[in-house]
Structure formats: structure tokens, C-alpha cells
Amino acid sequence: MSNNPETKGLSSFDFFTIGFGAIVGVGWALSLNNWMANSGGPIPAAIGYLMVLVILTPVALCYCELTPMLPVAGGGMAFAYRAFNETVSFISGWAAFGAFVSIIPWEAIQITDVLGYLIPNIKAGDPLYQIAGTDVYLVTIIIGTIMIAMALGNIYGGKSADKSPNPDKLYGRILIAAIWIALIPVVGKYIILGISALLIFTVSNNFLIIAAFAACMVIFVFPLFLLGTVTPSLVKYSVDSLDDSGQTVGTLGAFNTVGSIIGTFVPTFVTIPAVGTSITFLIFSGILILLSVIYFICQHTGKKKIAASVLIFILCCGLGYSDSFAFWQKDLTYEGESIYNYLQVSETDRQVVLSTNVLFGVQSLYMKEGGLTGMYYDYAMAAPLMVPDKPVEDMDVLILGMGTGTYATQCRKYFGDMNIEGVEIDEKITELSREYFSLPEDVKVTTYDGRAFLQAVDTTYDVIMVDAYQDITIPFQMSSVEFFTMVKDHLKDGGVMVVNMNMHGNKEGDINQYLADTIANVFDNVYTVDVAGSTNRELFASQHSDMIEVLSDHVENLSDAGLQNMMQRVADNSSAYVTGDYLMTDDKAPVELLGMQVIDQLIQEEVAYYKDIYEEQGISGLMEHL
Questions:
Q1: Is residue 7 predicted with pLDDT exceeding 50?
Q2: The pTM is what?
Q3: Is the dihedral angle over the CA atoms 508, 511, 512, 515 positive or is it negative?
Q4: Distance from C-alpha of 434 to C-alpha of 171, rounded to nearest angstrom
Q5: Which of 103, 177, 271, 334 could, after both became Cys, cross-link 226 (CB 3.0–4.6 A)?
Q6: 100 vs 39, higher pLDDT
Q7: CA-to-CA distance for 412 and 557, rounded, in angstroms?
């Protein structure tokens, strides 16, 4: 390598891209809106930029003069040493280092904000604390920790390459990371369950996200640290002279960026929907192993490493290829994944059940021998009977959150050939509805977001059921005043909206109070009824004031005794809702936060008995009672 300080290896364009890349990041991009807003708009902001440009121009000219005068590494630290002394140079160097390190937490916060626009649930749970008025969520800590792990990997990789410029060690680390990733489908589920079991007795709030954080740290930090050593090591091994160092570093950076894009989008949109999470881990692990094996074969070394890694990978493929997470359940009819959900279909002699949660929850079911479901669907069937002056069999019904079509199937069974249309964002669930849940072929299901569907159509309906859930929480875009106003606009005169609220708490300002207040600010008449034996509550809303009286009149004419008794129970137990001040809008709809609060409450209620045993008798007493 040439050590001639006058050798020119970077063009003007190279300098521009380095400077631009160092300046422009997520924090800069997100802060731009605030800068414009606080300065009075884009024109004052642009004037401010120009003023800063003028102010910084002398500083830039000083650097231009000092760089050829002192053509050595170190930048401001070297300049301070020459102008002052070692003490000032020491202070300036560490001050610069501290400034760069302090950027990492802010980048993590801003990345979380960016992801929050794309994936609203990323900010689920209470903010842990605030920094300069900015909420810091647990996901921010996760992203920051991962970035720190990769940054430490960068540092370690660079030092390791300087001490021992032998690529064997780099590819050895890649092999270790690959094997770790391959082991995730095999042992990851047990790690998650073990961490959850330990935390459930010690954590009272935000259990789910804290357990997820701990599991992510244990599973992902180490391989990311190892993979973080790759780029600086490759720079060391690839740069032969300063003449082409800029091009080499730029090329590696480009491949690094392209790889990040592929690693983000291919699993999300291709491999996970097609083959599942477990096989996705194995695919990417296999790619890393293949790269390392090719290197060692070309170098005629590392035979033991190759043999051991290939053997472990084959074992992982044999033991971890399955998409099954619920390994304790051996009688599942179907288990798999879609781009949105974990999916589980179980079957008995009486019913077929869909669950999108490993441990609890029933999202849809089909009664093989007919009859009522014993769930909230039975209560929701009162909605068509609340519509005045129209035969039930002639009504138009829209279901937002179709699932596998339980509500549609039950309405057809009891009310005749109603015109029913469904919207379901998860196409895989729709496929399961036809295969396992006997959803009639003439029931149209549109694969789309419920709110986007309403924006796209002008059709009006007699009944609109809102039963859209992302796992066990309502999507924020389908919980606001603006959304329910849109639903009201798509109802015919006298039409009824029925909303399934699957978690009712007992605290002031819980998620159901927010939803009910929001809906009551849109509709003139709102009634609620609790579903017996569950945490569900059904809400009926209409502009028609006599909806309960209409229901009572229809009940008398029902021929099915079971349905008649159920509808009478709904009529007797429904209570008019008094509007409150808890509103959710498109600007602020904290459904994830509210949902997590109820989930925490449910979890604590379930484990309270075992917590008492653990506190009184310790782990041995707990094991005896399990």
C-alpha cells in the first residue's frame, strides 16, 4: 500500500458523496418538517439554510487550507495538536468522538419514527421516558441496541483486520453467525418461552413488549455483532493502494446498501409469505454458509470448519424446517404463516377454529352441525334485526374484517340468502375460509384494507360489521372519528353498524371507552351489550332511534328457538351508551397502547394464582402445582 500523502485517490464527486452521506440521515430528514414549521414555512427555512451556508463557508475554507498543510489522519484533532498542544488535541478528539457516539440514540429514535409511519404497531406500549420532549419506546431501545451491536462489530472487525490481515478469521466469524441463525428455528421458540416464563412472575406492566425485547436481545445481538465485522474487514482486505481506495470503499458501500434492501424486502414480501419464518432463517443462513464454504475451498483450508458447519446446518434443516411454533399441539389441522399473521386451524367433531395467536384467542370458527357459536357472532346477528321496514333476507351486509366468514355463514344459515360482501386484508385467511370453513362461493371477499375499501366504493349497506383486528388489537386507521364517519356515510337510511370490541377493561379510559366515545360522537344512537363468558362487547350504532324496539318486534317472529332466545337476551341486556370525552382521531389513536394495557391486565389476572404460590412456596412449590 502506498503511503504517499500527496497521492490523489478521491475525485470531487467522491468527496461530495462522502460529505452528503455523512450529513443526510433519518434524523435530518424527519427534522426538516419541524424546522420549516418553527421558522414560518419553507421560504424562511430556505433563507436560514443560506445564512448558515454563508456562516460556515469560512470554516470550510479553513479546512481546505489546513488539510494540505497537515496531510495526516486525525482531522480536527491533528489541527488542534499543531495549533495548541497535546491536552487541547486530546480534549477535541474525545469531544468529537462523544458527539458521533451520541448520534446513535437519536438515529434510533428517528428510525422508530420512520417505521411508525409505515408500521403503526411499532410504537405499541407506553413510552419509557422522554428525551428533549421526544418519546422513547422500547422498540427504540431495541433498534438502538442492534445498531450499537453492529457498530461494535464494525470497530472489532476493523481492529481485528489491522492486527491480523487474514480473511480466514472473517469467514470464520461469518460461519459462526450463520450457524447461530440456523439454530434460531430450532431453539428460538424455547428461548422465547423460557424468557417469558421468567418474566411473567416479575414484570407487571408491558409484559409482552418487554419479553419481546429480551428475546430479541438474546437471539439477535450476537450474530449481528459478528456480521457487523464484515464491512470494515473487507475494506482492509480489498484496498491495495490509495489510488483506488475511494472506488473500493464506494463499491463495498453500494453492495452493503443493496444487501440491506434485499435483506429487508425479500423476507417480508417473498420468503416469509411463501415458505414461512423458519425456512427464511435457514435460507439466509445457508447463503452465508455457502459464501464461507466457497472461500475456504478456494483457499484449501478450513476443512474442519466446513464439515462442522455443514453438519450443524443439515441438522437444523431437519429439526427446524417446520413452521410449527405451537410444538405442544400435535393435532392441528393447519399451521402456517401469511404476510400478516401466524395462522392455526384446529378441528373437533363439532367445530373448526382459526386462531392467529399461539396461546389464546379464537378469531373465527365454523359449526359443523349448525347451531349458534356461543361467541360474539351470536350477539352481532341482532344487527340485521334492528333495521326497520325491510325483510332480513333482502338486506345488503358488509363485513370489514371477514376472517374465515363466521358471521357471513351464520347470517346465511339463519336469515336466508342475504347479499353479503366481505373485506379481508389477509388473502391466506380467505383461502382457508374456502378450504376449511365452508364459506359459500357466492360470498364475495375483497382482499383489501377495510378503510381503503370504503374510500374506493360508493355502495351503501343495511348492515356494516366492523370486526377488523391485527392480532388482538384494532388497526389504528379503523378506530378514529374519520373512519366511523365514513362507515356512517355507507349505511342506508335506518342502517346499523355493529362493532366487535374484543377486550373490555375495568379502568377509566380503557380501550372500549375510547372506541365507544368515538363512535357515539359520530352516531346519534349507540347501544352496547357484554358477551357472556368472554371479554368481548358488542356495540350497535345507528341514526335510527328505535333500533332496540325494532329488534324486539323482530324477535317475536323468529322461528328458531335458540336464535330467538339469544336475540331476546341482546334486547334485554343492551344499554344506551352515554357519550364521553375519550376520542380517537386520525391524528391520535393510541389503540396499541390501550390494547397493551388490557392485555397486561388479562395476563396478570391469569397468573395471579401462580404468582402467589411462587411467592409463598418458591419454585419447588410452583412446580408441584403445575
A1: no
A2: 0.63
A3: positive
A4: 48
A5: 177
A6: 100
A7: 17
Q: What is the DSSP string of 164-231?
A: ---HHHHHHHHHHHHHHHHHHHHHHHHHHHHHHHHHTTT--SSHHHHHHHHHHHHHHHHHHHHHHTHH
Tens digits of residue pLDDT in 73-86: 777 788 888 888 88
Asked if 527 and 549 touch (Cβ cutoff 8 Å), the reply is no
The residue assigned the cell 375519550 is 582
Residue 579 has pLDDT above 60, yes or no: yes
**CB 191, CB 269: distance < 8 Å:** no
Q: Which residue has the cell 359443523?
A: 368
Please say whether the dihedral angle defined by the alpha carbons of residues 388, 391, 395 and 400, taken in this order, is positive or negative: positive
What is the per-residue pLDDT across 439-456, written as a single tens digit (0 to 9) for each? 888 899 999 889 989 999
From residue 450, how far is each of 366, 433, 590 by CA, in Å?
23, 18, 19
The whole-angstrom separation of Cα 160 and Cα 356 is 46
Counting every residue written for the chain, the total comes to 626
Q: Is the dihedral of CA 183, 186, 189, 190 positive or negative?
A: negative
CA–CA separation, 177 and 297 (whole Å):
19
CA–CA separation, 117 and 244 (whole Å): 40
Q: Which residues contact 314 (CB under 8 A, 6 or more apart)?
A: none
How far CA 338 is from CA of 120, 192, 330, 502, in Å, comes to 19, 21, 21, 22
Are β-strands 525-530 and 537-542 bridged in parallel, bridged antiparallel, or unpaired? antiparallel
How far is residue 168's CA from residue 38's CA, in Å, rounded to a whole number?
54
Those residues whose C-beta lies under 8 Å from the C-beta of residue 463, and which sit 6 or more positions away, are 383, 384, 387, 395, 396, 397, 398, 495, 496, 497, 498
Report whether 308 contacts 178 (CB < 8 A): no
What residues contact 372, with CB distance under 8 A and at least 6 apart? 378, 410, 562, 563, 566
C-alpha to C-alpha distance for 104 and 111, rounded to whole angstroms: 10
Q: Which of 113, 462, 467, 510 is catalytic?
A: 467
Give me the mean pLDDT over the 192-205 stretch: 75
Residues pairing with 397 in the sheet: 420, 463
Active site residue 467: yes
SS3 state of residue 149: helix
The dihedral over CA atoms of 508, 484, 555, 418, expressed in degrees to the nearest 10, equals: -140
Other beta carbons within 10 Å of 173:
23
Residues 6+ apart with CB under 8 A from 347: 333, 353, 436
Q: From CA 625, how far away is CA 260, in angstroms rounded?
A: 48
How distant, in Å, are the alpha carbons of 159, 162, 232, 359, 527 from that of 156? 5, 10, 9, 41, 63
Q: State which amino acid sits at residue 625.
A: H
DSSP 252-270: HHHHHHHHHHHHHHHIIII
- Please state whether beta strands 419-423 and 396-400 pair in parallel, antiparallel, or not at all (unpaired): parallel
The amino acid at 484: F
Does the pLDDT of residue 397 top 80, yes or no? Answer: yes
CA atoms within 13 A on the CB side of 147: 18
All three cell numbers of 318: 431437519
Listed in sequence order, the residues at least 6 apart from 535 whose beta carbon sits closer than 8 Å to its beta carbon are 502, 503, 504, 598, 602
Residue 158 parent element (H or E): helix 138-163
Report residue 506 as a C-alpha cell: 375495568
Q: Sign of the C-alpha dihedral, residues 523, 526, 531, 537?
A: positive
CA–CA distance, 9 with 3 (Å, rounded to integer): 12
Q: How far apart are CA 141 and CA 147, in angstroms?
A: 10
The confidence score (pLDDT) of residue 388 equals 93
Grid cell locating 616: 409463598
Q: Which residues are CB-neighbours of 248 under 8 A, at least 6 positions away?
A: 235, 238, 239
